[in-house]
Amino acid sequence: MSAATPARPVPSARRLGWLAMAGVLVVALLIGVTQGRGSTSPRDRAQHLSEQIMCPVCDGESVADSASSASVGIRKYINNRIADGASDDQIRDELAEQYGERIILTPGRSGLASLVWTLPVAVLIAAVAGLAFAFRRWRGQVEARASDADRELVESARHGTGA
Amino acid sequence: MSDETPTPEDETVDAPPRRRTILLVTVVVAVIVAGFVGVLATRAPSTDKSATSALIGKTAPQVAGKTLDGGTFNADHQLGRWVVVNFFATWCRPCVVEHPQLDAFQKEHAAAGDAVLVSVLYDDDPDSAKQFFEDHGGDWPVVMDDGSIATEYGVTGVPETYLVAPGGRVLKRLTGGVTKEGLENLMAQYEEAVGG
Amino acid sequence: MNSTLGTAGVVLGLAAASLGVATLAYALWQRRPNLMPIGRTYAFCTLAGAVVAVFAMERALITRDFSVDYVGKVGSRNTPALFNVAAMWSSLEGSILLWVLILSIFTSLVAWRFRDRMTDPLVAWALLTMLGICVFFFALLAFPANPFEHVSRAPGFNPPGPNPLLQNHILMAIHPPILYTGYVGFSVPFAFAVAALATGRLGEGWLLETRRWTLIAWGCLTVGIVLGGWWAYEVLGWGGYWGWDPVENASLLPWLTGTAYLHSVMVQERRGMLRVWNLSLLCATFSLTILGTFLTRSGVLTSVHAFSDSNIGPWLLSFFGLIVLLTLGLIGWRGDRLRAPGRIDSPVSREGAFLANNVLFAAFAFVVLLGTVYPLIYEALKGDQLTIGAPYFQRMTLPIGLALLFLMAIAPVLPWRKGSGELLSQRLFWPAWVGTGTLVVAVALGARGLAPLVAFGLGGFAAGAALRQVVLASRRQGWRGLVGRTNGGMIVHLGVVLIAVAFAASSSYDTEREISMAKGDSTSVAGHTIEFRGLRTVEKKNKTSKQALVALDGKVYTPSLDRFPGGSQAIGTPSVRTSPKEDVYLSLVSLPGGSSDKTVVRVIVQPMIMWLWIGGGIMAAGTALAAFPGRRRRDPLQPASAPVPSREAPVEPEPDLDDRVEVGV
């Protein structure tokens, strides 16, 4: 038996409140998303990019962290290309061509490597679908009705050996 | 389980389909896990990784030059012995990690006289290398390289180690750090195959 | 002497645990309940063995007895006392020793706590499982990872001591024990899960019995992970606290499934549902702990945290395989008993929210696991190397994290069984305004970017919902409104929100610069003046420290490069100025020498780092509060408004504040 509070008519004050909130949210988000902060300054972009490229000569370090001259060279290359106006993706592709895919710290978009991106999404969709299916099955189930034998059982438990 | 007197209104979920689902799921999961464990079991450790090289089977390129302590070294003078050519740099963590292994290897085999270890400094400055050896110990020739030795060997990163058999042919290229045991296993394998 | 003593301890533990397993197995098989209490004795003997072994090891470390193999690897005459004691767990074999000690303590605690019910097959099975796990870990100590081998050393032998990174910070003494308590603690509910499956008694109260154990284990694991992040931040020098490194991921995986379990177990208590799922979660948590141990100690994955590899890999992997297959077998076998009598009425309900929570946490765990092991699978299939680094994890876990924040906001106000949009609109009104307010404040302070702003807004929303719950409870119940599972849980949620917001802020708004400076140079980074005043060398007992004197806004800090005698490369020790608003992190990258006469200093400015640790503390406090016994009702059939008796009574789930009493059919 559902025990939720019986529905009261929504006071128009509250509805207005929600609308006002939606408005404030939209405005704030618009300001926050469109009005750039310059956080994409060239230096920050270069830093961000070089954190995604692996040092070609040393295990597991990113170009941003490594002191090797190969890494320094790559960092210079990134800086130059950003100054030229190339996009992040372009720079990544160029480096991948030169050094191979493994230099990019994120796996590729195609082939076996891309499974690592698609598999979780597929699993999530399957899980949600499974749940939706289960809910539909549950809704379709007839509610169990207590039989007389069940009622007797409950009564004896409450007043007989109960507590 | 509890007594259930079936009444016309009761629609209980059948037991078999539920049990079948669970069995099916457990079997599927078991298969996946078995495959997973198989993959994990066959992974090589992160050291002593063998890599391809155009040099394998061929005569090793010359390793010669000035060493850290001011002398000179020439690998050609080591014919008849194993030569372990190790490219390293002080700024590279795996090189630091493998250093004690090389140290142990060198101590034992220098005494036995059957193998010689030589390091080639890769993209690093001599002062750092000197400090490194002072801090960590190690008493074998370190050749300073302007890049030409590395290029001839086709070194793509550090640490890389080339195992050169007595007679001067490159036997193995090992990337990612070596261990004393790994090197000795390779040497023993080769000697068994050749010695008969 | 220490070697012998230690080995004796290990042998004692192994023998006791094995005999315990054998006795209990025989007693269960032959249905001889009078034999089962002997298992208790064996549990205590196992503990004695562990204590003796640890005592021997610490004695050897403190007296610098280098004839013990392990002490010869990690001990040193120069290491300060605290780090010398903590050196026991600084390397592989000793860490297993610590694990064994904690495991034996938990086994003995279980044996003692359930001493009056030792003749119950379910308890016997649980103890058998725990002793079985003890057998495995003691066997590790006895065979592949033996720290007590006797080695004769040359006189004057002075080993370099533990890895210098492990001598730098007091967290070395605290983080591993707490983390291991978390890992090991989960083996208790796991043992009971196995027991329930083995005996077929799946509908009973063992869940409630082990609730507090699970909560404490989870709390320790949480604190352990947060401390790990703090330690990495303070010591490693790159200004980060979480790098999605394989070892870090290994610790996160059991935490994720454990958190899912903590939530979905409430559905099982209330509605009797999700039993298969909960059992699977418990088994998964324990299995992931073993898998994580394998990944970090076998050397298949490189990591800055990883212990040196050794022959322990095959043992751990086999144990993992064994555990998984056993639990799968048990679940498959008992499948028919797990038929749930109930159903979930509506997705818009507390149960529905917990289901969604579990789906999200499972997805999270899947992503982390996949990203960590995929390079291995890829290499097996294609023979080629693949790198999966932080950017993958960040991108994949961001939407899941945001969804979880949203769920944290609406779940506490959802009633059980069936909610309505009406109800939500009424109860979430003020929390939603808190969220909006947070967003507006953030934008006003200059924060930009969609992802962090959404995180801030949702965080405020979730915090509002949690606060609402706590305020309502305190108003109604006074101080008791702060304790008990629901209320403690709300406080934990507050901690999580704090961590989420701090995480978003520090990752999105950080500034990093590497500056080459000569003496007297000054520059400005993110509004702070950095002036380089020179270098100096300081000799300490166990290291030589080359310090850079860097004036940050006038005050001098000393990031340094430390060299340990005969140790490894110079270790950078950063210097951090912490404040509630932001951390300015200074680290000395390189000294003048070679081709350059300039000193290179790295400056990282990250906002709100301090709030990460505060959030962790709040989570710990909330866990402690949640473990506090809640109000007990004597008779489950009595309404919640019945007077509370003063005697001890079985613990019942906390009444929800918003719901009327449900009298079920």
Tell me what the structure shows:
The complex is a heterotrimer of chains A (163), B (196) and C (665). Chain A is mainly alpha-helical and 163 residues long. Chain A is built from 6 helices and no strands. The radius of gyration of chain A is 30 Å and the shape is elongated. The model of chain A has no long low-confidence stretch (mean pLDDT 77). Chain B is of the alpha/beta class. Chain B folds into 2 domains: 8-42; 49-193, Glutaredoxin (3-Layer(aba) Sandwich). Helices cover 41% and strands 19% of the residues of chain B. Chain B has 5 helices and 8 strands; from the N terminus they run H-E-E-E-E-H-E-H-E-H-E-E-H. A 6-stranded mixed sheet of chain B has the order 1-8-7-4-5-6, covered by helices on one side. A two-stranded antiparallel ribbon of chain B has the order 2-3. Chain B is elongated, with a radius of gyration of 28 Å. With 665 residues, chain C is α+β, with helices and mostly antiparallel strands. Chain C is 58% helix and 10% strand. Chain C contains 20 helices and 10 strands. In chain C, the strands form 2 sheets. In chain C, strands 2, 3, 4, 5, 6 and 7 form a 6-stranded antiparallel sheet that branches. A 4-stranded antiparallel sheet of chain C has the order 1-10-9-8, covered by helices on one side. Residues 645-654 and 659-665 of chain C have low confidence and may be disordered. At the A-C interface, helix 1, helix 2 and helix 5 of A face helix 14, helix 15, helix 16, helix 17 and helix 18 of C.
